[in-house]
Amino acid sequence: MIREKELSTMSGLVVFPVLLGVLGFSGYTLVRAFIAHDLWWGLGWGFVAFVSVVALGGFFVVNPNEGLVLQLFGDYMGTSRTEGLRWASPFYTKRRISLRVRNFESARLKVNDSDGNPIDIAAVIVWRVVDTAEACFEVDDYENYLKVQSEAAVRNLATRYPYDAHEEAQVSLRGSTAAVAKDLKTELHDRLAKAGVEVVEARLSHLAYAAEIAAAMLQRQQAGAIIAARTRIVEGAVGMVEMALERLSSQKIVTLDEDRKAAMVSNLLVVLCGERAAQPVLNTGTIYQ
Question: Would you say the pTM of this structure is higher than 0.70?
Answer without folding.
Answer: no
